[in-house]
Amino acid sequence: xxxxxxxxxxxxxxxxxxxxxxxxxxxxxxxxxxxxxxxxxxxxxxxxxxxxxxxxxxxxxxxxxxxxxxxxxxxxxxxxxxxxxxxxxxxxxxxxxxxxxxxxxxxxxxxxxxxxxxxxxxxxxxxxxxxxxxxxxxxxxxxxxxxxxxxxxxxxxxxxxxxxxxxxxxxxxxxxxxxxxxxxxxxxxxxxxxxxxxxxxxxxxxxxxxxxxxxxxxxxxxxxxxxxxxxxxxxxxxxxxxxxxxxxxxxxxxxxxxxxxxxxxxxxxxxxxxxxxxxxxxxxxxxxxxxxxxxxxxxxxxxxxxxxxxxxxxx
Length: 315
Prior knowledge:
By secondary structure, the chain is of the alpha/beta class. The protein has one domain: Divalent-metal-dependent TIM barrel enzymes (TIM Barrel, Alpha-Beta Barrel), CATH 3.20.20. It is built from nine helices and ten strands. The strands form two sheets. The protein has an eight-stranded parallel beta barrel with strand order 1-2-3-4-5-6-7-10, surrounded by six helices. The N and C termini lie far apart (38 Å).
């Protein structure tokens, strides 16, 4: 990350009306009237973004410059505990962070949050600011099964929370993209959350599909099947890769690795995106150990660029 800090030193939403007035709650030194972002030009290929948490040691004022110099199209801005914009500081910092990134010509097509309930007061403020600033998508946090004795009852609870959160997102013109994380998360296999989403207008809730986690959960064949399930409601993509390795106890574990060096069938995945002319954001989120941050960012960005060029150029 020192290399990133040194580099910094050198340096479409659903069709409803936007908020009439900018939110001002929590703004320091009285209300400020920010300049809403100019809507980005229509795209013919996805906007390739980096998850902003990877640049946490860089001040958010410089994140856009770093991403621009690396060659990214935009930023998936984290609004989670420990990020550039912690949820409780959204009123003070979220607009400024978005302006700092978009001000250098980059897109902020999606924000990632820890919000999982419509009753979360920080969540309402985050979505109101995102809507005013023209951010069309947000990724919620993760619902867990935990030790729930009744799985159906737990899914009912999650359904109510998703419905409530979607209602708030709709009020502020921000659609939800549910991420299929692995492990104990609701939606890891998509089948469980698919039933929930049947009752919601797909303009407001869809998927942030992760082929790495899908392959880890269901294998290559299963990942292709759940991608078909997600495709009609696909709003965003998060990419990661992994290999299988044995731990000290001899158990098989998924070990994160650079894109293209693991188990994901990337050619098939990007071909599927190209067939439907998907132009939503693709977020690179790196979970493997990085010896050199900038080299890792460039490697994964170059990989995605080549996959997009090959797949979309063939359609």
